[in-house]
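User: I'm writing a short report section on ligand binding and want a predicted complex to refer to. Could you take this sequence and S-adenosylmethionine and write out the structure as tokens? A short remark afterwards would be nice.
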Amino acid sequence: MSQPDAARAGSPPISGPRLYVAGDLATDASIGLDAAQTNYLANVLRLKAGAAVLAFNGRDGEWRCAVEPAGRRDIALRALVQTRPQPAPGDLHYLFAPLKSARLDYMAQKAVEMGVSHLRPVLTQRTQVSRIKAERLAANAIEAAEQCGILHVPEILPEMKLERAIAALEPARVLIFCDEDAAVTNPVKALQAVPAGPLALLIGPEGGFDPAERRWLAARPGTVRLSLGPRILRADTAAVAALAIVQSTLGDWGVRP
Ligand code: SAM
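Assistant: Sure. The structure tokens for the complex follow:
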């Protein structure tokens, strides 16, 4: 749940928190809320009946809703008007070696804010985390989506060993492999040579890729081995840096040359 966003490009500033809901959104639909959402609106924000809330569900666009009582102590939302239509989903897959919890929460939220459409945890030789809590990743994705004003919640794909995850990529999907051992060259120039089409970005674990993984990835057709500069970045820093370069060069931050 998030407080009102500043005006997003292309849409008037609409006051009110944004909430991801499960129910269908249509004129006059009543949307049930879970306990956490009820607590946030009623007790944290102390919203009264009639207060405006923006709701989205990943299918029906964004709707301005009004808080309404639902029984003695509960509240619900009444959908009033659609404020933004549902956009086409993006297509940027983010493959990452999971990190320890707080860093993983951060990395998942930043990846969503930076526009990924799918998050795939990959198990590499040096991945330090064994069990990934998919529901925690999903909760982070929802929280980030509410905060950054997108209308799709990125999909959390099941974790896979690195080799299987790479083999599962469609042949047309270019893999951008962030390799701290790659020769330091201008990453923007490297990416400008990438043909338009679906993309996947791969960030390794805190311990890095092992030499066999690195050799195999670099030899894979359709892989772009990318340097993120002369310093070794922590995996969560590398995620934000790489996604900024990818989005500004090939993605939705700018116009392709
Ligand atoms: N091998 C590193 C070391 O010596 O400490 C550890 C890997 S780094 C903490 C985690 C991941 O971030 C790497 O596997 C890579 O995907 C990415 N990364 C970090 N720095 C990078 C750089 N300068 N260029 C490209 N990728 C980088």
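A remark for your report: Helices lie at 35-44, 101-113, 134-148, 162-167, 187-192, 211-219, 235-249. The pocket of S-adenosylmethionine is lined by residues 178-180, 203-204, 206, 208-209, 227-229, 231-235, 238 (CB under 6 Å).
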